[in-house]
Write a structure and sequence with these properties.
By secondary structure, this protein is α+β, with helices and mostly antiparallel strands. The protein contains 6 helices and 15 strands.
Length: about 240
């Protein structure tokens, strides 16, 4: 956990948070850090919602199920994000780690005793809500090719932000994709065949190189990938 920060995500912290330790990811020093193995359930849909979870390391997928068992992967929570949201005091979705992860589990009762942290929770949920709206736009209006590129660009951006130096947009970056191609399809509303065909096409065009081991991926030009995902912003 980093020293006390004077701002969070570019915003000045309110005076009530002046003494709260908040990491560079926006995770408060509250609750106990817990280590989860790959593919370990963090919380089940419908269980009593006793904790809120901040992701410090790793990645968590948020999934919901229809009565007949069909699954929809509704969110991917990366470091700095929150999972374990609740409705009517029960978890609204099942959260499962995609890779070995460290989560900071905060009891709801503990958060209530630190009401000033509501500012941090509200800000993070606001960010995730905006991301969910962008994802819904992609599902409704983007082509399959754009959806896959946008998702890969998101993981590339997360990997790049963890580097000490700030790379240029055309840098070559190796990432470990935590999702299977089937899960990518579940998240993007695509068939497994469409995901495989799109990944193969991106490799043929020299945008990416698919590694020999599961999840290994080399992105040859981050800006080109971002542009193919529907973004014209080089910032």
């Amino acid at each position: 956990m980093a020293r006390v920060r004077e701002e969070f995500d570019g915003r000045a912290l309110p005076p009530c948070l002046a003494a709260v330790r908040i990491s560079s990811l926006g995770v408060p020093d509250l609750g106990m850090p817990q280590t989860f193995a790959r593919r370990q359930v963090v919380c089940h849909h419908g269980d009593p919602a006793t904790h809120l979870f901040w992701v410090e390391q790793g990645a968590v997928m948020v999934q919901q199920y229809l009565e007949d068992g069909r699954r929809q992967l509704v969110d991917i929570v990366l470091p700095g994000g929150i999972c374990g949201l609740a409705h009517d005091h029960v978890y609204s979705a099942t959260c499962e780690t995609l890779q070995p992860s460290v989560l900071r589990a905060c009891r709801k009762s503990e958060l209530e005793r630190h009401a000033e942290l509501g500012w941090v929770v509200e800000h993070q949920i606001e960010r995730q809500l905006c991301a969910a709206q962008e994802h819904a736009l992609g599902l409704g209006r983007m082509t399959a090719h754009e959806r896959v590129c946008a998702l890969l660009s998101r993981f590339a951006g997360q990997r790049a932000s963890s580097r000490i130096e700030r790379p240029s947009d055309d840098f070559c970056l190796s990432i470990q994709l935590p999702l299977t191609r089937g899960e990518i399809g579940d998240y993007l509303g695509l068939s497994l065949e469409t995901v495989c065909r799109t990944m193969t096409d991106l490799q043929r065009r020299g945008v990416i190189t698919i590694g020999r081991h599961h999840g290994e991926l080399v992105i040859h030009n981050a800006w080109q990938l971002k542009r193919l995902g529907g973004s014209c912003d080089r910032a």
